[in-house]
Design a protein that fits this description.
This protein has one domain. Helix 3 packs across helix 6 and helix 4 crosses helix 5. A two-stranded antiparallel sheet has the order 1-2. The longest helix has 23 residues. Strand 1 and strand 2 form a beta hairpin. By secondary structure, the chain is mainly α. It has six helices and two strands, in the order H-E-E-H-H-H-H-H. The mean pLDDT is about 80.
Amino acid sequence: MTTRKRIAVFALAAAVGGGFVFYSLPRSEPSYQGKSLSRWIRGLEYENVNPSDEQRAALRAMGKPAITRLIAILRSRDSAIKRKFVAYAQNHANIHNRFIAPRYVIPENVYHAQAATAWEKSARQREQRSPR
């Protein structure tokens, strides 16, 4: 086997091994019924502030880890390259329809709106449950 082939085989094996390790690592987000918190809060934006009963139950069941993750989401910021891509996509319908509209790439403002809405709903639930 030539040196080039050995390097190619080694690189391919390293990529496959790295992919396996990446996908086998535990997720840092809480989950409920096999769905992550990000998946549960999808669609909770300012124009849609009424979560379904199923979403409410999921937030309640995830408890404190969900609150901690929502805070982290609200503190996070998109990278410069992602902001540039989102700005470019907003001016090019084909790119927008392929990546932004189906939620493959979620812009920071949308993600923050989802987290803020979920935070508000969970805070209301805690207020209603706590005795006064």
